[in-house]
């Protein structure tokens, strides 16, 4: 399948596996890249030991690496370190990419910028991103409020208006071939797939958390600040994280002030629960796509299955 | 264009104009029905004089009527009155349709149920709706939190699982042919279009409010309770309304308790501003689709333009 995205990133399939912090390690990235999509390590906040270990796990597979943009501000060496690993692409999310774009592009590494608003899409085009990912609120993990259905065509129009060659990728709620076909219709050149890869054999997810998520439907997630508070991350207020509802979130979502007052106790409860895979406390960072997912196959098969379903759909289902 | 929806509702095009309370009057509904889509009066909270007047304006056009389900509980005569006008369809949103479904179906009137969750979709199928509208959070006016991109295929799977013949319609963020084509890919038989019809010559929208909205982009809307508080509507907490940001919303959104304390004063300010079309105070009930809209054509042309664009897209844009 050829699109502008497969050309820019030299891929067999126009599918990027989301660089999910902590969940997307080297095994997932390698299996995905071997399948013909783009596998990515979720470099997240920038733990260099973890990132190095995952590159080792990935071995010879040519994989990309994602980083949280705002977390680079105090630690610019993280980006230099990742550039030295010669990733297939670097994927920046959540913050102004301007201070980092030049170093990435000068190293000859394709730059993927994920955005959550039309305004930030303009910024990503301006700094020279090779790929802009328009991420809707349906996505698991961090994001913002725009829906995929409107953000993608609006960014498409902006790209056309600027006469830009940047590739446009849709993210947020895309878990199967229907989502890929819909994204093409909206003007995207490909998709980022998160939750579908999160629920795979290779993702670094506790088996109890995974089993619990597979039984959920799309109504069972919400966007919240609670998980960042209890994990002590200083996320900019505009971004919240989508996760599966559970007892812990039902208790603290909407009562963030009370959580802050009891924070030391709750942090210990959380850390302990994480070891045990306690689903009442530790929430899965999963998107609305959970309702379209009920198994955890090998990542090796995911992209091919999406392509096969999308191809069958793109034969018009109606008569004009 | 033939789909299950055009069969069920006897339409030329698989497009339903959203029954937007106060904005969708008889002129809009008639122009839409004449064009081959389904025109609808926004019966809203059930002002019978207004509804009658709009049916008169629509004349011989065969149009539908929308009602807010929770508002029927205390005033069941509203539904009986609307049934007597023999609308082409009745469209219920926001509440359990069970107490009303039988009367509508017994009268031989197609029942359209709009839902915002997978759970409510199951209920709509159960009560015998002929059409289920899966409405994502991108939509203007009232709604909930699921995104169109995931809710539509998840409801599609539920319909298939139940072996039901109900027609599935996508709503939320669909403003052009790309949205229709994407909705088909997700499994829908057609679409509900709101904001695109709200920005039309025939909609009952103050010209200043309309001009201000046409200049906005999709980042400029938010979901809020403020507009229901200041208008004194007792909406169930799960539903919020999407509207265009302005000074009034920037002041009170997130400060709802303060608004309630100053309510009598603010209600007067609001009512006065509404007369004048003061865009700093009166917010447009518009969806994220605003970013895809920059003109207000006649409703007569909207459906045809959407179909034309969708048809050009549904030729695959890539080579397998």
TrEMBL record, chains A, B:
InterPro entries: Aldolase_TIM (IPR013785), NMO (IPR004136). Pfam families: NMO (PF03060). Its EC number is 1.13.12.16. Keywords: Flavoprotein, FMN, Monooxygenase, Oxidoreductase. The keyword Oxidoreductase applies. The keyword Flavoprotein applies. This is Nitronate monooxygenase. It comes from Octadecabacter ascidiaceicola.
């Amino acid at each position: 399948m050829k699109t502008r995205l497969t050309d820019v990133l030299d891929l067999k399939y126009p599918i990027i596996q989301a660089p999910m912090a902590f969940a997307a390690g080297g095994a997932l990235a390698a299996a995905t890249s071997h399948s013909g999509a783009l596998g990515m390590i979720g470099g997240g906040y920038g733990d260099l030991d973890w990132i190095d270990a995952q590159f080792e796990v990935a071995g010879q597979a040519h994989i990309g690496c994602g980083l949280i943009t705002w977390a680079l501000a105090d630690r610019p060496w993280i980006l230099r370190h990742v550039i030295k690993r010669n990733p297939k692409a670097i994927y920046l999310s959540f913050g102004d990419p301007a201070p980092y774009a030049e170093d990435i592009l000068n190293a000859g590494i394709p730059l993927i910028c994920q955005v959550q608003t039309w305004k930030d899409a303009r910024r990503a085009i301006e700094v020279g991103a090779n790929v802009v990912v328009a991420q809707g609120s349906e996505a698991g993990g961090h994001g913002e409020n725009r829906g995929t259905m409107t953000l993608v065509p609006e960014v498409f129009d902006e790209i056309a208006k600027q006469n830009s060659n940047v590739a446009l990728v849709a993210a947020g709620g895309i878990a199967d071939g229907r989502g890929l076909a819909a994204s093409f219709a909206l003007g995207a050149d490909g998709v980022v797939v998160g939750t579908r890869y999160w629920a795979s054999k290779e993702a670094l997810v506790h088996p109890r958390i995974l089993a619990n998520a597979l039984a959920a439907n799309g109504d069972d997630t919400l966007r919240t600040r609670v998980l960042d508070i209890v994990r002590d991350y200083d996320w900019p207020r505009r971004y919240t994280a989508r996760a599966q509802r559970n007892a812990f979130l039902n208790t603290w979502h909407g009562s963030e002030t009370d959580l802050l007052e009891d924070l030391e106790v709750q942090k210990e409860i959380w850390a302990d629960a994480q070891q045990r895979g306690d689903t009442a406390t530790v929430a899965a960072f999963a998107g609305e796509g959970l309702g379209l997912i009920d198994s955890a196959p090998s990542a090796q098969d995911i992209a091919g299955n999406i392509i096969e379903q999308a191809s069958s759909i793109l034969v018009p289902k109606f008569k004009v």
